[in-house]
Amino acid sequence: MTSPVMTVIRVNLEKAKEVARNWERASYPELSAYCLEILREIGCSSNELPVNLQTREQQLNFITGFASYAFGEVLNVQSAK
Fold this sequence. Notes:
Layout: H1 4-23, H2 28-41, H3 56-79
Helix pairs in contact: 1-3, 2-3
């Protein structure tokens, strides 16, 4: 039997990967700006990316992780109704 939790995680991960694929075509400045936007959204006030978000790969991983978390939060709110 498949766990409903694992199904939700898998769906969220697939949606997050789709977001990442869309961002793979973005330029480095666009990626950097979006990462800064995410950081501001979660309460970071810096105008510069931290050391661990300097490469394109790090930024794409960050965007993917944030998208996965965000989709999970949306699904959790919807399932609570």
